[in-house]
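Review this fold:
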Amino acid sequence: MTRKTQFVALLAGSAAPLSLFAMAVPAQAQDAATAAQPQQTEPAAAVPEETGEDIIVVGTAGGGTRRQDAAFALTTLNADAIAQAAPNSTADLLRTIPGVMAESSGGQNGANIFVRGYPSGGDAQFVTFQVEGVPIFPPPTLSFLENSQLVRLDETVERVEAVRGGTGSLFSNGQPGLTVNVVQRTGGSNFHGLGKISYTDYDEIRGDAWISGPLDEDTGFMVGGFYAQGNGIRDPQFRAEKGGQITGNIHHDFGNRGSVEVYARYLNDRGQWLLPIPIVQDQDGDIHAYPGFDAGTGALPGRETRVTTNLAGRTVDLADGRGAKVINTGVNFDYEIADGFRFRERASYLGGHADTVGLVPTEAPIAASDMAELLGGDGATLSSLSYVNGGGALAATTPVMRAGVWEVRKKISSFVADTGFEWSAGKNKLTGGFYYANYTSRDRWALGNQVLLTGEPNARLLNMTLTNAAGALQTATFNGFTSGQGFIVDGQYEGNDYAFYAVDEFQITPELRVDGGVRWQQHKVDGMIRTPAAATVNLDGDPNTLYDNAVSVFGAPRPIDYSDSAWSWTVGANYDITSQIGVFARYSRGNSFPQFDNLRDGLTITAKVDTYEGGIKVSMPWLNLYATVFHNKFDGLASTQLVDNVPLSQVGGAKATGVELEGALRPFRGFTLSGAATYLHGTYEDFFTGGGTIDNTGNRVQRQPRWAWRVTPAYEVDIGGFKPSIFATLQYTGDRFSDPENEQLLPHFYQLDAGVSVDVNDRIRLQVTGNNLTDEIGLTEGNPRVIGSQGEGPILARPILGRSFRFSAAVKF
């Protein structure tokens, strides 16, 4: 693709979507949208044609390969698609990838991402993000921190590459699940630039810009970024979404011998951590809005809860939300030392803060009289109920609920270096390398800190007194707080990974290529942590002040000293039946080492993943069709779930079999019908919750549907210099279970997005798009802090965002 083509394509940057399914490229690639927008997704315009000739890096040792030749399941999101779409978050982009279930209903940050039946309770345990081929932060997930939180996709991004399974277990940090690589724009021989502004019907404004050009004949630069602010669709009555990112790089070419690129990226962006809200589930499992609480726009936080001072005297501001303030710098060096022999070095450093602050609901609204009995024990009755900040007494029938003011502070750093050598001779290419990563996290947590609230949007703080069964008058709250801190953490962690890898690729015939490789990795973690002592304390010694009778305090410090190593390996083959039709097959063994949170809770198991996959690739001017069949087997899985402020272990195995389909049909000029579908049958095997007390064997893997699909028609015409486009996406997400016990049902739902864009001339594009046009109530999460069913009636769950519209204008120069 020429720079002019890339540049013109950027005008579509206001276009949108998670709807784009554009053309899958050979090896299961497909186009999608990537420019980040802080809230809703927007459907994309017409889909560009793929050739399969583009060079991709992810899933390779660094030299790259043609997509048509890749013997693994790959998705590429190129510059045309980036210009045509705008997902609501970095993680939301991944919803376009078959085999991946990405839940972005939690806001810009804090996504839950699941891959091909890999069992996980949340976050993104088996997903790694890279910038320029280097992991952003080597642990794919820590509690309250997953990789997508550390990067935003804006107009400075040239393309995104993603490999699932396949060779991912050999390269980078050895991720056997999904590895996503973000490739930045670089400068060329001419000056180019773009400016764009967008505005939503929920009063969010955002500006994007970038400029690139030459510094000399062989050296170019690029600099750009975005800034946005707003309250968000779920308006908490304060500025919840605010921040931006700036990226710059300098790229130098050594003629035909290689290149070097130095880059830096500063991110300072935060958004509201969106959590479950009250929803009504009837006896048939159907979902309805809770009275007075809009399922698509309602938010529990409000002016009264924004700033609170807990029982420990710590003031917490919910406007801090969830986000990151980090700097990421790096260098990529690639040079041919001698004919057929290349040296590569990729290194990066990341440092800063990634904090999470939120109002975490405990239970769905209940009558105040029932809450009095819940807080005071059997036989307790309500004595008084009033607003903390003024107002009359409230009735015993008033719906009330509790929510915790959770605060998690993380100071993180990482240094990663990947050194590789490549030797090519005839039909053979041998690559070897060394990977080193050092990463740290300084954690300070304070969970619990529950407050009593009205059961309504932008809830108000309440005070309550009650009379217990013995007739004693008891005070249940202090300025709204019903409890102090519950689960607390003070931890310092340091991890070091050392790995050697070697891969051999052999072109046996012009049609047949085989490859195989191995990786040995050692994983070391040292740390010192404090968690709650076995006994809680009564802060004031008065048993009738219920709010401070059981406050957690730190126990003695304890060290973490862990070390283990494992081998990973893979073998695959790609065969071109014709220049337009190919097939591939692969087996791989990958490993997932325990990270900081597992080791804190005493889980030292190294998960092993065996993957068998094969596929067919059809790439023609009028049709792209790609299909992959896979089977995964998991052993030694380990995770934790916080239930009643106590980590609950989940340990065991699973298996998953699935089919991934994607493609695009172009029957006539200007019209594209694209789509994708995933079938997944994933079940637990010898998988236990709660220290072996609950056997989930045979249950479906949580949060991942058996069926998911989407279809996107798009039509573009040229009318007298104007180029209008219309586009829409219908998406289906099947039934899932929120919990490993398969008792919290998340019903299937449909989502419809659509939009119109107009190229006024070669420089200006205007666009309006709508998301979730039918205002569907689609649940992506139940209450992850309970085990089992929540029953009928009011429950806690997290729906997708409600109907919204985005207007944008972009201009190039």
